[in-house]
Design a protein that fits this description.
With 141 residues, the protein is mainly α. It has helices at residues 10-18, 20-32, 35-44, 59-62, 65-94, 103-137, and strands spanning 2-3, 50-51. A two-stranded parallel ribbon has the order 1-2. Helix 5 (65-94) crosses helix 6 (103-137). The model has no long low-confidence stretch (mean pLDDT 77).
């Protein structure tokens, strides 16, 4: 038997997601389904001569261990690339060439900038309060 190939549901899903009431109804229906109803839904969605796709809590155990290792390695690689991209973006924002400083030094640079900005905000707040006080009393600098 061949594996089930789902039809193009994208346009239908887009329509449902555009309507908050329809979306809420779908979520409530799914939340209220029992395991038997969910299984029945899987059986009804099959096409003639096709096996349903594997689903449920035991699916991960059906995947051979070497395949799972490859999947995890790919996930780890993608996360590492994403994290490196974020670090590069942060270094770019800080105006520091990537690799010039370690990640710890980059974090410390961000902290120092944040502290300087916080100190400047505090100084400006104090100056505004001072000006407001002098405006109320009629004293001008």
């Amino acid at each position: 038997m061949r594996q089930m190939v789902p039809p193009d549901y994208h346009s239908c899903v887009d329509e449902v997601l555009r309507s908050s009431s329809a979306c809420r109804m779908v979520v409530e229906t799914l939340a209220n389904m029992t395991g038997a109803e969910a299984e029945l839904g899987w059986r009804q969605s099959r096409r003639e001569g096709e096996d349903p796709p594997p689903h449920g809590p035991g699916v991960a155990e059906q995947i051979p261990a070497p395949v799972r290792v490859i999947m995890l390695e790919n996930d780890l690689k993608a996360r590492q690339e994403s994290t490196l991209g974020l670090w590069q973006r942060l270094a770019e924002i800080m105006g520091i060439p990537m690799g010039q400083e370690s990640l710890v030094e980059l974090i410390e640079s961000v902290r120092m900038v944040r502290d300087r900005q916080q100190q400047r905000i505090t100084e400006l707040d104090a100056r505004v309060r001072e000006l407001e006080k002098s405006a109320r009393t009629g004293d001008c600098d």
